[in-house]
Amino acid sequence: MICEHCKQRHASVTVTTVQNGQTVEKHYCDHCASKFHPFQTEIQEEPVALHQLISNWFGVPMWKNAQTEEKKTTQNACPSCGFTYRQFLKQGKFGCAECYSTFREQLPPVLSRLQAGTKHTGKSVAVSVEQLKQKIEEIRQQMQYAIEEERFEDAAKMRDEIKSIQHKLDAGGVDV
Amino acid sequence: MNIEHFLKQAPKCMMGNGEDSDIVMTTRIRLARNMANTRFPLSFSQQEANEVQEKLMKALLMPQEQLNFSYFRMADLSPLERQLLVEKHLISPYLAKHKEVAAVFLSGDESTSVMVNEEDHVRIQVLSAGLQLMETYERASELDDRLGKQVSYAYDEQFGYLTSCPTNVGTGLRASIMMHLPALTMSKQMNVLIQMMTRLGMVVRGIYGEGSENLGNIYQISNQVTLGKSEREILDELQKVVEQIIEKERNARKKLLERAHVTLDDRVNRALGTLRYARVLTSEEAATCLSNVRLGVDLKLIQGISPSSLNECVMFIQPGFVQQYAGTVLDAVDRDIYRAKYVQEKLGEDRLTTGEKGEETYDV
User: Fold this and answer.
1) Binning pLDDT at 50, 70 and 90, where does residue A30 land?
2) Overall average pLDDT of the A83-110 stretch
3) C-alpha span between B7 and B13 (Å, rounded)
4) How far apart are CA B213 and CA B198, in angstroms?
């Protein structure tokens, strides 16, 4: 069979289209078919890296307010590690724990694509010895102020609080 | 304990006979954690890296904790030693690569390892034989609690445990089940099943890392989601999926036995012949033959080979172990020769020990 379009080469591709409920078959050669249906050829599946996926989903298209976006993201750099939102999109990783606070507003849409939700419902964190010690230090300072201001009742409460935390701390040390 | 202790044998936890151990080889639980007020390894300084190491040493090597960990800094290990730890799944390839900052704590029985300064500051990993999701998680969680009391974790009320990659945030939990699925692979059902599992939020990979797809018909199935579900929900879902796959594999094996008994018998025994008598074995061929022999043992078509020897072979056919066995660095061609020699020795031993006693009592 000869190609219906160029009428020169051997037809090797059959294109079936449905028009008004009627099936129409056309026969083209390779050359003409590829011109009419450039996307018929197999597109090689390339493995897409995760960070690319994230930026494909959430990256702001370059043509859209590229300049203002640039400004916004540079302003929005994480104070602890200097990561910008753009950098996160590019790498798919955060630089530090602080990033989660810095980009808190932007994260839910990102996370809801990757995860089952945007709120942690699992195990909650244990309070560390370090944190308990810090807490004691804070209360001790407040107690000092209270004493200076002669609010002795408050100071007594704080003393008891410190005692109970200290107790926890000691128990934790033995228990662990 | 010195590093040699961890390089000679396959982990004991891989040798045990857990539940469904004919199909499920191992259960692995990993928890990702970070220290509060320290930048993630992606952007931290060498000084911060050292601080993380020191804090964890204080917390995990305390005598009253009685954890009996051995501690190794990656920088102090040779490339081969690092590779062996990777091949044993005790550390990740990522950890071995970032040797300037990385370290690992290993328990004596090799069931527990704590990776330091991987993508996150802390990665707790617990390994057990067979299908034991809950039990293994409990062990990891207990260690996590003890560590959490000593060091302050980076934690957020909304997002849970904070991690470098948003795919780990929340619970930081990744549970992986390593399964041997020869019958499903032979009957070409795996592709459909993998698609199904992906839709259910599971990730399916090969055992020897990415790209190795289904070498030796071994698949690793793990949860994708870490946020928005509790640990128990994540583990229950994985458990359900794995149980279904086990049942499907059992059915497929039964059908193969019924419909193609001779072909199957021929195939598994040929594989045994290859392993016993080949003089050159590529890792692909070895993995395929080991899978077939394992299936033969499971279906009682082959007697006198213990599953633990096969488990050991699966690990020892990897390039690092072959070189350790040979005692020298080898190129690919020589590796294939030594691999054949090792497998032959290993399976020969079995014939001697089990042949006389008539039962599979050989234990390493």
Assistant:
1) confident
2) 89
3) 14
4) 15
Disruptive mutation site among B119, B138, B162, B199 for chain A (greatest number of A CBs within 10 Å): B162
pLDDT score at A164: 85
Class of residue B164 by CB neighbours under 10 A (exposed 0-12, middle 13-18, buried 19+): buried
Strands (E), B18-144: 24-33, 69-73, 103-107, 112-116, 122-129
Do the chains contact at A130 and B230, CB–CB below 8 Å? no
Higher pLDDT, A138 or A14: A138
Tell me: pLDDT of A89 over 90: no
Task: Tell me the nearest-neighbour CA distance from B275 into chain A, angstroms.
Answer: 35
Q: CB within 8 A of B269, min separation 6: which ones?
A: B296, B301, B302
Residue B150 to residue B161: CA distance in whole angstroms = 16
Which residues face B174 on adjacent strands?
B30
Binding-site residue numbers of B for ATP are 26-30, 89, 123, 174-178, 205-210
Residue B104 sits at φ, ψ, to 5 deg, of -145, 145
The span from the CA of A118 to the CA of A57, in Å, is 17
In this predicted structure, the answer to whether residue A64 has a pLDDT above a threshold of 50 is no
Length of chain B, please?
364
Q: Which residues of chain A make contact with B166, given a CB cutoff of 8 A?
A: 54, 92-94, 107, 110-111, 114-115
B46-60 and B133-150 helices, crossing angle to 10°: 110
- Judged by a CB distance cut-off of 8 A, whether residue A58 touches chain B is no
Q: Which two tokens stand for residue B336?
A: 């294939």
Q: For residue A53, what pLDDT is reported?
A: 57
Residue found by looking up tokens 């594989």 in the block: B271
